[in-house]
Write a structure and sequence with these properties.
75% of the residues lie in helices and 0% in strands. It is built from 8 helices and no strands. It folds into 2 domains: 3-68; 85-157, Arc Repressor Mutant, subunit A. The chain is mostly helical. The protein has helices spanning 3-11, 13-24, 27-43, 50-68, 85-102, 106-117, 122-129, 133-157.
Length: 160
């Protein structure tokens, strides 16, 4: 790997760290995955875009770790009860929304999480994901529209 490429990866370490932390939410796991991704990237001598390659390796490292730990959403929806019915319905809808979000492509899920949960700007997300700001906006809107449509259908079915 060229010295220039190594320097580029070092300069973008914080972006790699943020991306992993969005997925893992644990500092130690994040540091481990970023270091592993950097080591794998450094082992390859001829890469057109080392940062993009490292980003993909990091993404895969994070998801492998989550799968090994059995990360998943609850299998059953919570039962609605007579007490605090509004709160229970809200929780029920949140679980359904999380399930619907899980059906979106991983890239869209990451962008939605980074924007709404973590408070990144479109420009920051574009930099981290290695895509244009307009593409981030397009993917974000596409994901939102799909979720809104599915939640409207869900609410119609459960209005009884």
């Amino acid at each position: 790997m060229r010295e220039k490429d190594k320097q580029q990866l070092a300069e973008r370490y914080l972006d790699l760290y943020r991306m992993a932390f969005v997925l893992l939410r644990n500092e130690t796991d994040t540091e481990d995955c970023v270091q592993e991704a950097l080591a794998v990237t450094m082992a390859h001598t001829f890469l057109l875009d080392p940062y993009q390659y490292c980003t993909k390796v990091l993404h895969n490292q994070c998801y492998q770790l989550l799968r090994r730990r059995g990360y998943s959403l609850p299998k059953e929806l919570p039962e609605l009860s007579e007490n605090n019915e509004d709160n229970k319905l809200y929780e029920y809808r949140l679980v359904q929304l999380a399930r619907l979000k899980e059906q979106l492509p991983e890239r869209v899920i990451n962008i939605i999480d980074m924007y709404y949960r973590d408070g990144y700007t479109l420009a920051q997300i574009a930099s981290i994901q290695g895509i244009s700001e307009s593409m981030v906006k397009k993917l974000l809107n596409k994901g939102k529209m799909r979720l809104q449509k599915q939640m409207i259908e869900f609410d119609k079915k459960n209005k009884n």
